[in-house]
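seq:
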Amino acid sequence: MLLSIFTQKNPIEVLSSTFSKIPTPASSALQAELLEKDSIIADLEKKLAAFEGMGNFKRGLVIIDSPTLNMRSGPSLSSDVVLRIPANSEVEILFYDSQTYYLNGKAGKWCRIKYVGKEGWAWGNFINEI
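struct:
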């Protein structure tokens, strides 16, 4: 109560602000858990930044009998054509779809690619890794 006289505050305010600063086992455990999670997040952010900076993509060459290859908005013939890529053009191969499809009796996978700054899907059988 003496502290409330010196600070000219209500004794209840002084007591509640003093006791709220005393760590309890539960608050200490929570704080330790938050620090651990923050550390994990920081570590994952560093790994992600390193991965993005590595340029982890493969290069591919468009090999097709027609003048262009359709880059589509999704991995399907019914998806919209986003761009027409000229034959013998180089593309970035981002990844292949995990599912195998059949087109004109030939098994293949859709390929997520990047060409002139745009991303889309193309039939993977028409792209040769270089």
